[in-house]
């Protein structure tokens, strides 16, 4: 009897821990889908176009870059790097943007499938998620080699969302958007090295990129 009294609490703690672990594992698909819904709108609007621009720009060779002999296999094999960097930073942007009171009201009317109006996430949970995600994304970005671009993206995120840059005069909003697109495209320059090493935009390429930035931020 004494032995049973000693073992029972231990067994209860073990069962509780197993239950918590099982519940966490079962919740993983739910949370992954929440992240997918969070960034869904920006995948087609920002991420895919930027990746395509980077690949096409790298393959253009001397037409708009300083690399006259691009390596197709090397370039295509590096696209996941740019995709991961842009998607993880998009997660941060959407967490910061969609938890703002004005965004919640607008999404409740126009995009009720987003996590907060759909009840999958609260504004407070989004804030806490963003708080933990910032150092994780920064470390991941450092591993991917985007150590210069990532802090700039954080600054733009703070100015655009937390300081209300998105609600200011359209010139301020468009300027922040233009800088953000320029940072994304600058990361593309480093993400698709060809056979002759990292490529940078030529004078013609910089003009082409400026046209793309102005068009996408207008």
What are the salient characteristics of this protein?
single chain; 218 residues; mainly alpha; disordered N terminus
Write up this protein.
The protein is mainly α and 218 residues long. 77% of the residues lie in helices and 0% in strands. It has helices at 2-59, 72-77, 79-98, 101-110, 123-144, 149-162, 170-191, 203-217. The protein is globular. It starts with a helix and ends with a helix.
Number of helical regions: 8
Structural class: mainly alpha
What is the string of SSEs from the N terminus onward? HHHHHHHH
* CA distance, first residue to last residue: 77 Å
Give the low-confidence spans: 1-7, 192-202
- Describe the global form: globular
Can you give the helix content as a percent range? over 70%
Which range does the strand content fall in?
A: under 5%
What's the overall average pLDDT, rounded? 76
Radius of gyration: 22 Å
* Sheet with the most strands, sense and barrel status: none
Number of strands: 0
């Amino acid at each position: 009897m004494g032995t049973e009294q000693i073992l029972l609490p231990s067994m209860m703690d073990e069962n509780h821990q197993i239950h918590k672990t099982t519940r966490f594992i079962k919740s993983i698909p739910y949370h992954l889908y929440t992240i997918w819904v969070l960034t869904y709108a920006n995948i087609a609007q920002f991420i895919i176009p930027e990746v395509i621009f980077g690949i096409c720009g790298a393959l253009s060779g001397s037409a708009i870059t300083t690399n006259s002999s691009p390596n197709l296999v090397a370039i295509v094999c590096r696209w996941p790097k740019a995709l991961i960097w842009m998607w993880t930073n998009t997660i941060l942007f959407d967490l910061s943007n969609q938890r703002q009171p004005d965004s919640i009201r607008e999404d409740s009317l126009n995009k009720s499938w987003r996590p907060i109006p759909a009840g999958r996430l609260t504004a407070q949970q989004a804030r806490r998620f963003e708080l933990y995600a910032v150092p994780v994304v920064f470390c991941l970005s450092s591993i991917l080699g985007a150590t210069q671009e990532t802090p700039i993206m954080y600054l733009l995120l703070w100015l655009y969302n937390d300081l209300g840059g998105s609600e200011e005069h359209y010139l301020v909003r468009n300027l922040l958007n233009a800088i953000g697109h320029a940072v994304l495209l600058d990361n593309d320059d480093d993400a698709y090295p060809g056979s002759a090493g990292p490529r940078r935009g030529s004078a013609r390429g910089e003009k082409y990129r400026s046209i793309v930035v102005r068009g996408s931020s207008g």
